[in-house]
Each structure stands twice: as structure tokens, then as C-alpha cells.
Write a structure and sequence with these properties.
Layout: E1 11-15, E2 18-22, H1 26-32, E3 35-48, E4 61-70, E5 77-80, H2 99-105, E6 110-114, E7 123-130, H3 134-137, H4 144-153, E8 162-165, E9 169-175, E10 179-181, E11 184-192, E12 195-205, H5 215-222, H6 234-237, H7 240-246, H8 248-256, H9 261-278, H10 292-308, H11 315-323, H12 327-331, E13 348-351, E14 358-359, E15 363-368, H13 371-377, E16 380-384, E17 387-389, E18 401-402, H14 403-410, E19 419-424, E20 440-442, H15 464-467, E21 469-471, E22 480-482, H16 484-492, H17 496-505, E23 507-513, H18 523-532, E24 538-542, E25 549-553, E26 560-564, H19 565-577, H20 588-606, H21 615-635, E27 640-643, E28 645-649, E29 653-656, H22 664-667, E30 679-682, E31 691-697, E32 700-707, E33 710-711, H23 714-732, H24 737-740, E34 744-750, E35 752-756, E36 760-765, E37 768-769, E38 782-786, E39 793-799, H25 801-811, E40 821-827, H26 830-835, H27 837-841, E41 851-858, H28 871-888, H29 905-918, H30 928-931, H31 945-958, H32 967-970, E42 977-978
Parallel strand pairs: 3-7, 7-12, 41-42
Antiparallel strand pairs: 1-2, 3-4, 4-5, 6-11, 8-9, 9-10, 11-12, 13-27, 14-35, 15-28, 15-34, 16-26, 17-23, 18-23, 19-22, 19-23, 20-21, 24-25, 29-30, 31-32, 32-33, 35-36, 36-37, 38-39, 38-40, 40-41
């Protein structure tokens, strides 16, 4: 019988996602190459199965169909997954690796088998294209073939191949010579049309190509039109099996619409050709990568090549010039304190008024306009080798320079924006004069473990395990970043005694600077200095009994040159973007793409994953933003500082009294000093209270200000406030350059608000509430339960714990209702699956890509709300809180419960704040019962604690972690409670 064979799906040659030399027959192609490529767009439709929590089933989800399209075809095909064979309306996929069904449908004779040993056969590499491929990975394989995929996901040996997920799914194998290739071999042999081939897999996951956007937006930005993406509503998508059975035509149109990822990548490539041309660097064009960060890093590198006058072949030379400022370079200093320079610190995040839970004053939410973007335009980017000051990492006899000594020695060589140092106070010293400007960092045990592998550039690297923790302590400093803006703060806002203490008690653990004396002003001068350098590195040992020493002299070339980032790239991108209208549907995608590039440059500078990143540049940009945020926080009497802004009461900002100046000592814990002789609290830009009025603007209510009797509308009010903030801060903090570098924008004006932790808040306009912000909580509602008897009872499927909690804080902070047990939903990612496989997923039917649940309680008490004096004090409170939480389901809340069972949140935060400011090491020491070792008698269980334990146990049964009789053991296990920040 004759079969028509479609060979259009196979290629002999591939350059990332560009394919050439399509083959006419496998026989002929194997004469030219030992590797054949089969690129396919894939997608699946599946459903999360409902279940009764009291009688949980182990089956988590059911895959309905698999959709596959070879990239040369205009439309794909649908195959019913074996899970739904009983209701199949399409051919049922039968192979262990379901893409083979597509090859068979194209007329090829295929036999797929598993083998025990690697083969020396020619290779067929399946390049799978999709958006968030983790969702499809386990659904396109079955039986032992799924086990093979699972083994690669859990693999800890890169030489045997690994499948990992950061922002996108990747396959990688480490070969001899430390060369990492983007594919994995499977123990599968495919016999196709009589030819046996070894199977390899590679993934082209497009979910990070344009950053954090969805598939529809990604395609729209690339110019790929999707006709049927809105075919189903959100509610209909929850019952996709019903859609499959009852609306087959709509289902087909919708499901096949997700098979245009390769098309989108090709269109994206053309969009970036336009961007390269607009920057006059078309001769340096490089294929866009699968993450926007990597794509933009190559644009920056191309602009540096152009700046230096090199052609594209000079790439390695530019990488060499940039290398000495990268995180990767500083990680190589595994035995000296220079390794601490590998990290770029983030934004300021602090609760400035921790004993305030709500405000019913007029509130403005202010941001630094274009915080990091403007910071980038003002920033010089250096090329060359900086000076590094460092000491042995594990030595107890390091004689660090004090800040005073360091500045005396090197200040004339420090170029603003191009130096940094990490400073610490001595281990046994607490500052006499409290500060909250410097942010301490406690690195991981091995700082060299901070990940910088470019292929893992989107790992969740901001965890305690690999970058440590950051925190502000009032009487201790540990490895805090300082640079020019800190010196401005030190010289202009500190009192003489605090300045003296910091100059003498801050030790320079490590420093990096591009020395002013070595600066070159022209490119020929820079290149000549590199060529003519004749320095030598010398090591000399001087031996004398009891006084032996090793003297090392390094004479590397430290010549350097810099270029302004605005002049290099940012200004050109802004000009090119202005040519595309945001309002024109045809032009908006390019406008958005330019904006994405501009915003990504900053991320590339501070990222540890790119060869053009520079930790000195990154730390100066973020430190400049943290400094500006400090002046906002203090001058505006803000509530919470969150990276680039804070909310404040427009009638209660801080001003110095006549003939006085605002000093950092006075501004520290200002919420307890409202009767100070140094400052007054008054309206912004006015002597009289600022009035407001509410008016309708379309469907919504807006707030306008009344200034000097004139009614301003909302937009005019926002502009007026932004201008007044600049005037106010410049007046109260004279001689501070950073204030002149930024402008301010107001998101909106509100009539009341509630605050929690460091970054959780909710605003109101009149009685209309604005959706709150609380980390770890989604906007959708959750299933909430209570336990009236032996069985759990569903209370609601639309429980929003963060919204209800923040609403209570605003309405009745002395009588906050206790939270309910709820189920938190998330997608199981490969990283978590691998890490917790033995304890959580080994006996479960859940796999990466499934939606899984965990039982949770909202934690009302958050220690992040308070500023501790030292790490020792914070660790002590944190240990105590964890102990209480594991025993009772709550921590300090149990001492502040009203007779009605509600929580007096206001009294709790006032009491804890008072004790922490006083220096108490834990709460229990304040209780009389503690002195007689009877403190446990005062412990009280959270009213929903038993419900939580029951829900956890039922989920343990669902995921194969426990049997029914194990419930007593569960009661002893630590519980999961969400802090919310």
C-alpha cells in the first residue's frame, strides 16, 4: 500500500530556531548529516479534576487533547489523549511519545522503542515549540516514556542531561570541555521508514521572549494574529471537557490557535531587525534569544562594539573589557572578600511607621518617576579593569580599613557612580546612634554559589539559599553597600557624633573602584594604554621564624574608559519609540517592544547572568534609588517604602522648624517623636490644611484638591503634588544631589488606607475600595473550609483572605476577624518537584505542569513590620515566632485576643514595636509566667488550627504522603502559614 510521506517537517541544518536544507528523503539526508531536526509546535488542553476534600482522589488532572503542527504547515492537527479515549472525537494518540503519532499521520512508518544503553545511531532531534512548555511536558508522553522524562527532570547530573525550568523550560547536557548543549538524549530509538535514529529533545519555550506577558500579548507584539484566542470565557475554560463534547468546532479553533510559537519567533526576529536598524547597528545583528534579558544584552554589546569602533568579530574583545565588572568575575574570588561584590542589592523595602495599621487622612501614593530608567540615563558604563580591595575570606586577623581611613587614602580616586564598597560594623559592636539608611546583607555560606550560568538566567535566584538575606538593622551593619549617595547622606544629614561613629566604626570589607587617575578620555588612548602596559605580578615570601609573610604585588592594567548609558543606547531607544503611537493598533506593538527593551537594560546591568552586566553600575543605580526612597520616606513621613515610592498623608509631612535642620538621628523612629523641637508636621506646600472633594469621572469616583481656594481636577492635583514633593525635599534636604536627579509622579489620591508588614496595603476612595496588594496572595478567590465535626465543610469558593484582612485593618484594627483555612492553588514547577520529590511527590499522581493545592492560614503578625537592632535580636524573635506557630498555628496573636475571639491587631503591633525598639530579645521574657517556666500555659491555638491540620492531612492523602491512620502524626508536623510579605 502506498503512503504519501510528508518530509517538509524534517531539516538537515538548524541555527537556533531557523531551519534550512529541508530533506527529500531520510536516506539522502543521512548521507549529508548525522542529525536530523524535526521542529514542531505543540500544545495540550487539559482539566483540573474536581474532588471532595473529605474523600480525596489521587487523580489530579486529565489531558483532553494534544495539538501538534510542523512549522511549515499553516494549521496543526488534534489528537485525543488516551486519558479521554472514551470520549474521543479525534484520533487517539497511541505512542509513548505522542509526537510520533503526528509523523504517522504524515505518512511515515514508525516504530518507537526504549533501549537500555546509549546508541551510536544518527540522531533525530525533536525541537518542541510552545508557550510555557512545562504544562505540556508530561502530557505528550505516557507509560515508561513519561518515566524517562521524569528522570531527566529530577536529574542532578548535568552530564547525563537535565530538564529544568526557570522562566522557561530548557533541556541541557554538559559535554567534555564544559560545553553545554541545549538538548537531552532519551533512551529511545525511532525507526522511521526503515531507518533507526536516536531520539533527542530540545525546547523552545516562548513564555519569556517578551518578559512577563501572556501568549496572546506575545503573539500580538510579534504581529501574529490569533483569530480564536477569545473563543472561550474564563468560566468556559474551567470545563474544557464539556466544551470538547458540546462545542467541537469552537474547541478546535481555540486549541489550534496555540500552535504559532515558531511563527511568532520568526516575526519577533524581524521586529528586532527594525530595532537594530534604528540604532544603526544592523551590521551587528544577532538572533533574538528566548528571554528578553538575553536579547537586550546582545543589543547593549553591539552598541559597545560600535562605540569602540570594532566590527562584529570584536565581540570577544568587548566581553574581555566588560568581564572585570561582572558578577561572574567576582565569583572567581572564592577565597577573598572580593566575592561579596558579586551581588547587586535590590530596592529599599521598609515599614516606616510600624505601629500604624490604618489612616483615614488624605493619602497620596507617590513614586519616583522612571526610577531605574532615569538612573540608567545618568549612569556611566565603564570598560576596563577596576581596582579591587579585598582580604582573605576565612581569616580572623584581617585588619580592615575604617571608612575614615579608606576615604583619606582613596577619596580623590573615587568617581561618583563608578565605585562601591561593602562595610560592616565590628562583630561585638552595636551602634550608639541608630540608623536606617544602610541595608545589611548576610550572604549564603558559600557566596560563590550565587548562580550566574547564562543558561539558568531565569532561575529563582533570589532565595536565602543562594544569595542570602537583606535587612535593615538600627544598631548593626553587615556587608552594606556604600557609594557616593551614602557619602552625601553622611556629610549632609548625619549629626557630627553619628558621622564620627560611622567613619570610625564602619570597616571596609571589600571595595571596587575605577580609579580617576587611570581614566582615559578617548578610545585610542584607552587601546594604547592596554597595548603599552608592561606591569608584572610578583609574589615574594619572606621567611622569619614567627614573622613569615607573603607579599603579593599585582600590576595589571587598570586603564579604563566609560560611556554614558543614555548617550550609548537609552536616548536612541526613546527617540525610536516616539515614532510609534501607543494608540494606533498597528504601531502599538513596536512601541511596546521599544519600551520593553528600555526597561530590560536596567535588569541586564544588575543581573548576574550576562557578560555585559556590571555590579558597580548595578549597585550604583539601586543605591541611588534607595537613597532617594529614604529622603521620600523621611521627608514625607511615609508609611511603607517599596522600592521606588511610598504612600503618605498630604497634610502630615515633616518640615524642619525655624533655624533647624532635619538630621538622621531625629528622623529615625519619627513616629514616636511628634512633639520634637526639631521638626513640625504640616501640610505639603501649604500652611493651611489641604481640602479635597469627590467627583464623578465616567464610571468611577475621583478626588480633586482645593488649593488656595481653586478646585483642581484629579490630574491637576496629581501634577501639583508631584511638583510639591520635589520642592519640599529640596528645601528640607539641601545639598543632596540625588534629589535633583529625579522627578515624582502620583499614582492617585485616596481618603483612607490600611497597612501591614513591609509591603502590604489597600486604599479607598470614599467607600470604594481599590484592590489591595499583599504578596503570596492572588486576586482570585480561594476555597475556604471550617471543621464543625469530623468532616471539613466548604464555606465559600471565593474567599479572599488578604482583602478581608486588610479591610478589617481599616475598619476595626482593634477587632480583626480571624482568618479561615483555605486552599492555595499553584502550578507545580520542575524545580520544586525535583527538590521535594522524596517528601512530597514520589507517591503522587501530580507532575510538573499540574495545579496543586496546599492548606494555608494567613499570618496576621509579621515580624518584617519592625526594624530590629541587630541580627541576633531578629533571629531570636524569629525562632520564638516559629516555635509558637508550629505548636499553635499562630504566634504572638494569642496574647491579644478579645473576649469576642477577634484580634486586637493595633495593641499587638504597638506592644511588639515597643519591645523591639527597647532591645528585648523575645516576647516571652516580658511575661510573668516565663519567669516560673509556665509560659506554655498561656499559649492559645488558632481557632482554625485543627481545621488546617485536617485539610493538610487530606491533601497528604491526595498526594500520597499519608494514609488515613496517620492523622495523629500530622498534628505534630510544622504547618504552612503565609506571612504575606
Amino acid at each position: 500500500m502506498f503512503y504519501y510521506k510528508n518530509y517538509n517537517m524534517f531539516y538537515c541544518k538548524a541555527d537556533t530556531y531557523q531551519y534550512s536544507q529541508p530533506i527529500d528523503s531520510i536516506s539522502e539526508s543521512l548521507l549529508k548529516t548525522s542529525r536530523i531536526y524535526c521542529p514542531l509546535d505543540i500544545d495540550t488542553e487539559f482539566t483540573h479534576l474536581p474532588y471532595d476534600l473529605n474523600r480525596p482522589t489521587k487523580e489530579v488532572s486529565k489531558t483532553i487533547t494534544v495539538q501538534i503542527k510542523d512549522i511549515a504547515s499553516s494549521e496543526g492537527k488534534i489528537y485525543t489523549h488516551p486519558d479521554c479515549a472514551d470520549i474521543a472525537k479525534h484520533p487517539v494518540a497511541s505512542y509513548g511519545f505522542m509526537t510520533i503519532d503526528h509523523l504517522v499521520a504524515a505518512g511515515h512508518r514508525c516504530v518507537l522503542t526504549r533501549v537500555n544503553q546509549p546508541t551510536m545511531l544518527p540522531v533525530i532531534q525533536f525541537d518542541l515549540y510552545g508557550f510555557f512548555l512545562t504544562a505540556e511536558l508530561y502530557r505528550i508522553v505516557q507509560g515508561a516514556y513519561r518515566d524517562d522524562i521524569d528522570e531527566l527532570v529530577r536529574s542532578k547530573n548535568p552530564k547525563l542531561g537535565q530538564i529544568q525550568m526557570g522562566r522557561r523550560l530548557i533541556a541541557s547536557t554538559l559535554f567534555t570541555g564544559n560545553k553545554r548543549e541545549p538538548w537531552v538524549y532519551l533512551p529511545w530509538v525511532l525507526e522511521i521508514d526503515g531507518h533507526k535514529l536516536q531520539v533527542a529533545l530540545s525546547f523552545y519555550d516562548t513564555c519569556a521572549v517578551h518578559g512577563a506577558v501572556n501568549y496572546a500579548t506575545f503573539c500580538a507584539n510579534c504581529g501574529v494574529k490569533l483569530k480564536y484566542k477569545d473563543t472561550f470565557t474564563a468560566e468556559e475554560k474551567k470545563v474544557m471537557i464539556k466544551m470538547y463534547l458540546e462545542y467541537l468546532k469552537r474547541y478546535g479553533d481555540y486549541s489550534l490557535g496555540d500552535l504559532y510559537n515558531h511563527d511568532a519567533l520568526i516575526e519577533n526576529m524581524e521586529k528586532f531587525r527594525i530595532i537594530y536598524r534604528s540604532l544603526n547597528i544592523e551590521n551587528y545583528f544577532e538572533l533574538p534569544r528566548l528571554t528578553i534579558g538575553a536579547t537586550v544584552a546582545r543589543i547593549v554589546r553591539s552598541k559597545l562594539l560600535q562605540f569602540l569602533g570594532f566590527d562584529a568579530k570584536g565581540k570577544n574583545q568587548v566581553i574581555e573589557f566588560c568581564r572585570y565588572g561582572t558578577a561572574e568575575h567576582f565569583k572567581e574570588y572564592k577565597r577573598t572578600t572580593a566575592v561579596y561584590n558579586a551581588k547587586v542589592d535590590g530596592g529599599r523595602c521598609r515599614n516606616n511607621r510600624p505601629n500604624v495599621a490604618r489612616s483615614k487622612q488624605l493619602i497620596a501614593d507617590a513614586d519616583i518617576a522612571g526610577c531605574y530608567g532615569n538612573g540608567l540615563r545618568n549612569q556611566e558604563y565603564p570598560l576596563g579593569r577596576p581596582i579591587t580591595v579585598d582580604y582573605p575570606l576565612r581569616s580572623n586577623i584581617n585588619e580592615y580599613l575604617t571608612l575614615r581611613q579608606f576615604l583619606k587614602k582613596y577619596r580623590k580616586e573615587l568617581v561618583p557612580g563608578l565605585w562601591q564598597a561593602r562595610v560592616s560594623t565590628p562583630d561585638d559592636y552595636l551602634l550608639k546612634y541608630s540608623q536606617d539608611f544602610l541595608v545589611s546583607w548576610h550572604p549564603p555560606k558559600n557566596p560563590a554559589n550565587i548562580p550566574t550560568d547564562s543558561e539558568l538566567e531565569n532561575t529563582d535566584w533570589f532565595t536565602e539559599d543562594n544569595i542570602g538575606t537583606t535587612k535593615i538593622y538600627s544598631k548593626q551593619v553587615n556587608l552594606a553597600i556604600i557609594q557616593a549617595d551614602f557619602l552625601d547622606w553622611l556629610d549632609n544629614t548625619c549629626t557630627a557624633r553619628q558621622r564620627k561613629e560611622l567613619l570610625d566604626k564602619l570597616h571596609i570589607v571589600t571595595a571596587v573602584f575605577y580609579p580617576k587617575s587611570e581614566r582615559c578620555t578617548t578610545i585610542p588612548e584607552f587601546l594604547k594604554a592596554l597595548r603599552k602596559h608592561k606591569g608584572k605580578n610578583i609574589t615574594e615570601a619572606k621567611i622569619k621564624r614567627g614573622q613569615s609573610k607573603v607579599i603579593k604585588i599585582e600590576q595589571e592594567c587598570h586603564a579604563w574608559i566609560s560611556v554614558n548609558m543614555g548617550d550609548l543606547l537609552v536616548n536612541q531607544l526613546l527617540a525610536a519609540r516616539s515614532k510609534y503611537s501607543k494608540k494606533d493598533p498597528e504601531q502599538k506593538p513596536m512601541n511596546d517592544l521599544y519600551k520593553l527593551c528600555i526597561n530590560t537594560i536596567y535588569g541586564d546591568m544588575v543581573s548576574p547572568f550576562f557578560d555585559i552586566g556590571n555590579v558597580v553600575v548595578g549597585n550604583n543605580i539601586t543605591a541611588r534609588a534607595r537613597a532617594m526612597a529614604w529622603y521620600m520616606e523621611k521627608g514625607l513621613n511615609g508609611f511603607q517604602t517599596i522600592t521606588d515610592g511610598c504612600a503618605f498623608e498630604v497634610n502630615r509631612v515633616i518640615s524642619a522648624k525655624k533655624d533647624r535642620e532635619l538630621r538622621s538621628e531625629v528622623l529615625f523612629e519619627i513616629y514616636n517623636k511628634e512633639d520634637s523641637s526639631s521638626f513640625r508636621i504640616n501640610p505639603l506646600g501649604n500652611e493651611q490644611e489641604i481640602k479635597h472633594y469627590l467627583y464623578r469621572d465616567g464610571e468611577s469616583e475621583k478626588i480633586g484638591l482645593i488649593i488656595d481656594g481653586d478646585k483642581l481636577d484629579n490630574q491637576q492635583s496629581l501634577t501639583w503634588l508631584g511638583t510639591q514633593i520635589t520642592i519640599h525635599l529640596q528645601k528640607e534636604f539641601p545639598n543632596i544631589p540625588v534629589i535633583d536627579k529625579f522627578q515624582f509622579e502620583i499614582k492617585d489620591i485616596y481618603t483612607s488606607a490600611s497597612f501591614h508588614g513591609t509591603a502590604n496595603y489597600k486604599f479607598w476612595i470614599g467607600e470604594r475600595d481599590i484592590k489591595g496588594k499583599m504578596r503570596s496572595y492572588k486576586k482570585i478567590g480561594y476555597d475556604a473550609y471550617h471543621l464543625p465535626g469530623d468532616d471539613l465543610q466548604l464555606l465559600t469558593s471565593n474567599y479572599t483572605p488578604s482583602e478581608e484582612f486588610l479591610r478589617d485593618l481599616r475598619n476595626k484594627p482593634e477587632k480583626v476577624e480571624r482568618c479561615k483555612t483555605y486552599l492555595f492553588y499553584k502550578i507545580l514547577k520542575p524545580g520544586e518537584y525535583k527538590k521535594n520529590y522524596e517528601t512530597s511527590w514520589k507517591n503522587s499522581e501530580a507532575f510538573p505542569g499540574c495545579t496543586v493545592e496546599s492548606a494555608r492560614l494567613l499570618r496576621e503578625c509579621s515580624l518584617t513590620q519592625f526594624t530590629f537592632q541587630s541580627k541576633k535580636q531578629f533571629d531570636s524573635w524569629e525562632r520564638e515566632q516559629k516555635h509558637l506557630r508550629d505548636r499553635t498555628g499562630q504566634s504572638y496573636e494569642s496574647w491579644f485576643i478579645n473576649d469576642s475571639g477577634t484580634l486586637d491587631f493595633q495593641e499587638m503591633i504597638e506592644k511588639l514595636d515597643e519591645m523591639i525598639r527597647r532591645g528585648d530579645m523575645k516576647y516571652g521574657s516580658s511575661r510573668e509566667a516565663s519567669k516560673h517556666r509556665h509560659l506554655t500555659r498561656e499559649y492559645g491555638e488558632h481557632p482554625e488550627y485543627k481545621c488546617l491540620l485536617k485539610a493538610k492531612h487530606q491533601l497528604d492523602i491526595r498526594y500520597g504522603r499519608a494514609q488515613m491512620e496517620d492523622i495523629q502524626d500530622t498534628a505534630e508536623a510544622p504547618i504552612e502559614v503565609v506571612r504575606g510579605d
